[in-house]
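Tokens help. One example:
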Amino acid sequence: MLTATIDAFQTPPAAQFNVGDVVTLKEGGSRMTVTYAGPVALNPGDWLICEWFDEHGELRREMFAPASVRAEPRSIPAGSVLWNRVGRAA
């Protein structure tokens, strides 16, 4: 008879964030999309690589520790869109 046991201390924890998740920094800031979650060369531990558009419409990318961000809903309510920032053709 075969038996197997799992040692909880040797099993890697489930990823807290996944690619496609939307996050913000705990201190506040733009909504960002996680484009990579896992180890990064020469940096111990797991990291998140996130992308977002800044206030000038430029695409930004940065690496963050998972403990520095919080999850956000993937969609935003229509009432939260700032229409004065959207360019309109005359």
Notes: The two ends are 78 Å apart (CA to CA). The beta strands are 22-25, 32-40, 43-53, 59-64, 69-72. Residues 22-71 form one domain.
